[in-house]
Amino acid sequence: MLKVGLTGGIGCGKSTAVTLFRGLGVPIVDADQIAREVVQPGEPALLQVAKVFGAAVLTAEGELNRGWLREFIFKEPKARTQLEAILHPIIHKRIGQAMQVAFESGAAYVLVDVPLLVEQGYQTLFDRIVVVDCLPHQQLERVRARDQTADSQTQQIMQIQASRDLRLQAASDLLDNTSTQAVLEFQVNQLHKKFLGLSSS
Description:
Radius of gyration: 18 Å
Protein name: Dephospho-CoA kinase
Keywords: ATP-binding, Coenzyme A biosynthesis, Cytoplasm, Kinase, Nucleotide-binding, Transferase
Distance between the termini: 10 Å
Binding site for ATP: 11-16
Pathway: Cofactor biosynthesis; coenzyme A biosynthesis; CoA from (R)-pantothenate: step 5/5
Catalytic activity: 3'-dephospho-CoA + ATP = ADP + CoA + H(+)
Helix content: 55-70%
Largest sheet: 5 strands, parallel
Strand content: 5-15%
Strand order of the largest sheet: 2-3-1-4-5
Number of strands: 5
CATH superfamily of the largest domain: P-loop containing nucleotide triphosphate hydrolases
Shape: globular
Number of domains: 2
């Protein structure tokens, strides 16, 4: 049962790598999707969030008021810590459950797509950590081409994310995405073979 976490900074090509692994038949657990699910109406986590932050954190329909919460966290930095203390244990548990389901279906290994793996201390969940890496100027160029986003916005996101050095230190396996998609695809295929070997040994 090999558990693989995959991460990368904005614009590094994480989504492309995930798509390539999925194409090889690897089951993918999407941590962002789980994070959205745990704050759906009726979920215990949403009730806890409302208890801590008050009624303003909910819309009239009883859904999470993301805009309000984003602004509040921006103004009150300790609120982020409070929010993470509520959500992360639940997200951790759900990721574990989703990996278990993948193994029960006979998968050799499972890949978990975690954008903020290093920032949120998720390293202990995994046997291997894959980091998709490229150069900082490439991050800016790729996000600009993809989203038509101003560089200043992208740089703000890059500052919130773990530094490139921190991500690289956490990596047990690296996907170097400084070249072409064909080169990335070759590396994904090599890693896939490696993980199949590790899971069977």
